[in-house]
Amino acid sequence: MSEPAGMTPAAGEKPAGQALEIIGLAKSYVPGKPVLRKVDLTIAAQGLTAIIGPSGTGKSTLLRCINRLVDPSAGQIWFSGEQGRVNLVSLRGKALRQARRQIGMVFQEYNLVERLTVMENLLTGRLGYTSAWSAWRRKFGAQDIGMAFRLLEEVGLADFANQRADALSGGQRQRVGIARALMQQPRLILADEPTSSLDPKTSVEILELLKGEAGARGIPVLVNMHDVELARRYADRIIGMSAGDVVYDGDAAGLDDARLKTIYGGASWLR
After folding, report:
1. Which of the chain's ends, N or C, has fewer CB atoms near its CB within 10 Å?
2. Residues 193, 64: Cα–Cα separation, whole Å
3. Residue 161, class by beta-carbon neighbours within 10 Å (0-12 exposed, 13-18 middle, 19+ buried)?
């Protein structure tokens, strides 16, 4: 018996061990030129899953379909959230806003409001839970402000609460981005190339922070990255994509040279 378009009969109960189920997900920006080709994936309700693959293979499009920044051309995305198990593809209006506030997003280019302070940027993570009038007045409750201060301490920015975002380094900005996502108290975090603009040392620090903070809260993370070695080092599971298809799904130990050739093509770059 098929599930209804919006919510399963077991709404309100989070399926054990599962945060996300993607079924037949496809996306074409131009007719006849698919970016995603009927992707099927299940994401566990814990751990860090890394998606690797060459540029243009659909990694970012996959994440943007999940949080509905991009509308899929076909398929289903079942998300286990506050409202039970819902198909994100079918949601509109208030139901979509309620689901999206439970999905934290960490961006490659940070997506901070440059003229606002670090504290104000963190508090934007609570906008989905705040009335429009309070948000317009930038009025947040003591509980939200207290949570923001605690997160700043945890990400190493306790002394930067009143600093404008445009005065921060790239690594500091990404720490704000991670803290802002955690402010949503999400059921899932998506991270789109969070280290691609950072130096190697800072990249390691950011991956450690993201995995540690999310792991301590039991929040699963789905992250796109180009750095295969970082994926091997920090991912509990690695998904390899090529030309819009999933061609590898396993752990770091199974990601040998033969698998990498299948994902990226060629061999000269391996040496």
Report:
1. N
2. 12
3. middle
Whole-model pTM: value is 0.88
- Segment-wise mean pLDDT, segments of 10 residues, the chain, 271 residues: 37 59 96 94 95 94 95 96 91 92 93 93 85 58 91 96 95 96 96 94 96 96 95 96 95 93 75 54
Of 249, 252, 248, 250, nearest to 261 (Cα)? 248
CA distances from 48 to 15, 99, 216 (A): 19, 21, 12
> Residue 52 and residue 50: Cα distance in Å, rounded?
6
CA distance 45 to 49: 11
State how far the Cα of 222 lies from the Cα of 234, in Å rounded to an integer.
12
Q: What is the 3-state secondary structure (H, E, C) of the chain?
A: CCCCCCECCCCCCCCCCEEEEEEEEEEEEECCEEEEEEEEEEEECCCEEEEECCCCCCHHHHHHHHCCCCCCCEEEEEEEECCEEEEHHHCCHHHHHHHHCCEEEECCCCCCCCCCEHHHHHHHHHHHHCCHHHHHCCCCCHHHHHHHHHHHHHCCCHHHCCCEHHHCCHHHHHHHHHHHHHHCCCCEEEEECCCCCCCHHHHHHHHHHHHHHHHHCCCCEEEECCCHHHHHHHCCEEEEEECCEEEEEECHHHCCHHHHHHHHCCCHHHC
pLDDT value at residue 141: 82
Predicted local confidence at residue 271, as pLDDT: 54
Which pLDDT belongs to residue 9? Answer: 32
